[in-house]
């Protein structure tokens, strides 16, 4: 197990850090007129991976074509969007919200997946329920990231807080999900708010205990784990290209919903092309059941997550997401 994990630790984890990590980017280039699409090679970016591998985006874009770049984290994705090196793509809600609240040019066109956060505790940690977190430690991929806010909000509701705000629960941030495995193995951390498939990997391979299933996590069933975004400038200047990508997105989502086995094979093959390693099939299958690929966008859940982030003092100002979400173009396509 350690050999598999060590080999994929950096390369495979890039997708798992969609909401809050750090790393490098890579991609391929076609022509200058291509629409530049960004994504993360991870489980809840299934629509992006399927759309790419099945050719749905190219089919809809026609002669214009597509260029793909996979990112290791939301910060790099947002930087590429801000600097004009990316046109449209898939990213976690946290980086998108934070960028919007600082005045960034970004708009959410629709959702790509919900769920995919699992709260797990190390075997022997003494944690069975959330009430056991007092005096214990937990880790997340980033400080104030999607998963961090979800867990800390659940703890706050039962009267517990992290040491970040003077509480008794120790929080270690910026722990790459791949490194969570090593920390669990070595007894260096008690629990984790882990993105999939790493939460399931900890359960299946290291006998971790599930403290909260994905659908019992704060906003677990409604908060998008992945959203499709672009800049308002690109949307205004290239409405037909945006619609083409959204049609490809629709086809990809429908394919994943109707063809689970082939979808998982496509994702694992894509990861193999990048890392020369595959996820264990059991982990992949069980992690798949802890998320939902969907175009259904819950703007109220995005606002609720931002409000929670503010309540937990990750934000200095009360968040207002007016203008952040505009699903009108995707809705029109879905209703065609």
From TrEMBL:
Predominant location category: membrane
Signal peptide: 1-18
Keywords for the protein's UniProt record, in alphabetical order: Cell inner membrane, Cell membrane, Membrane, Signal, Transport
Protein name, UniProt field: Aliphatic sulfonate ABC transporter substrate-binding protein
InterPro entries associated with the record: ABC_SsuA_sub-bd (IPR010067), NrtA/CpmA_ABC-bd_dom (IPR044527)
Keyword Cell membrane among UniProt keywords: yes
Family the entry assigns: Belongs to the bacterial solute-binding protein SsuA/TauA family.
CDD domains given in the database record: PBP2_NrtA_CpmA_like
Keyword Cell membrane assigned: yes
PROSITE patterns in alphabetical order: PROKAR_LIPOPROTEIN
Pfam families: NMT1_2
Cell location: Cell inner membrane; Periplasm
PANTHER family, per the entry: ALIPHATIC SULFONATES-BINDING PROTEIN-RELATED, TAURINE-BINDING PERIPLASMIC PROTEIN
